[in-house]
Amino acid sequence: NGFKGIGVKPAIVANCATIPHDPEEIARVDPLNNDIPYDWSLIHR
Description:
With 45 residues, the chain is low in regular secondary structure. It contains no helices and no strands.
């Protein structure tokens, strides 16, 4: 799971799961160096 806040005010992300968390179900990857084609940099408009 990855989240990027792009506003000027603080934000809260709440993950309200309906099943218990199992750490064996997740594959951790480096968000800045992996095969997921996503640009984490901010674009100021």
